[in-house]
Amino acid sequence: MIPAMAFEWAKLRSVRSTWWCLGVAAFLQLAYAVLIGLDARLDLEDSGGPSPLVVSDAGLLSLQFAQYALIAAALLAVTGEYSTGTISLTLRAVPVRGRMLAAKAVVVGGAVAVTGAVLHLAGSVAAGLVAGSAARWPVGDLAIDTLLTALYAATLAVFTLGLGTVLRSAVGGLTAVLVIAVVLPTVLARISIDAIQSVNDYLPGTAGVAALYGAVSDVADGQPYGPLTGVLVLAAWAAATAGAGYAVLTRRDA
């Protein structure tokens, strides 16, 4: 397993798309965090501000935009191999397909988890510095939210990787992620049938919102469950898509 993980890590860090996606994620994270910090500072200067800015909240809110670049990175880690034909070389190097997929999931999930944690910290610090006296720096909240972000990013990456393995297409995978995580929860939320709402509460998109937005300190209580439960629900979806990816991988030719 260790050689397979080393092989996957070498591929992940050697392709240009990975670094482009990380660069875009960093830009989106920092840009939105700076805007949040600036908004808090101007509110305080103009009218006293409705409440101080908890810096870890800025990191969480900013990640809601940066996460789409992380999704693209996780998706391209598998679909890029199919589009270039290098998947056959990967399977020659690691012929046990389950081991290959597991190694890819560990490496991609771990890399995205670390990236998510770094982005959260960077966004929190950037927002706090811009906000100035309007910022509050609770170290405990910052540490907990950073860990939560890492767990969320890892499960999101594995969920995306599983879908990419099933669909084998970057466009198809990205469309599927956006439909499942963004469009479907929004559409179903407009339907007032209790059974539909119960299903919607446990879709990946709803779980992601509960995990990130639910952890914001001053958010109104409108989530179906807490942030940790949101991560666990998303982890269950990640396991399901990874299992589906394994089933497809073992039944189809490369």
Automatic annotation (TrEMBL):
<feature type="transmembrane region" description="Helical">
    <location>
        <begin position="142"/>
        <end position="163"/>
    </location>
</feature>
<feature type="transmembrane region" description="Helical">
    <location>
        <begin position="101"/>
        <end position="122"/>
    </location>
</feature>
<feature type="transmembrane region" description="Helical">
    <location>
        <begin position="170"/>
        <end position="193"/>
    </location>
</feature>
<keyword id="KW-0472">Membrane</keyword>
<feature type="transmembrane region" description="Helical">
    <location>
        <begin position="20"/>
        <end position="38"/>
    </location>
</feature>
<protein>
    <submittedName>
        <fullName>ABC transporter permease subunit</fullName>
    </submittedName>
</protein>
<keyword id="KW-1133">Transmembrane helix</keyword>
<feature type="transmembrane region" description="Helical">
    <location>
        <begin position="58"/>
        <end position="80"/>
    </location>
</feature>
<dbReference type="Pfam" id="PF12730">
    <property type="entry name" value="ABC2_membrane_4"/>
</dbReference>
<feature type="transmembrane region" description="Helical">
    <location>
        <begin position="228"/>
        <end position="249"/>
    </location>
</feature>
<keyword id="KW-0812">Transmembrane</keyword>
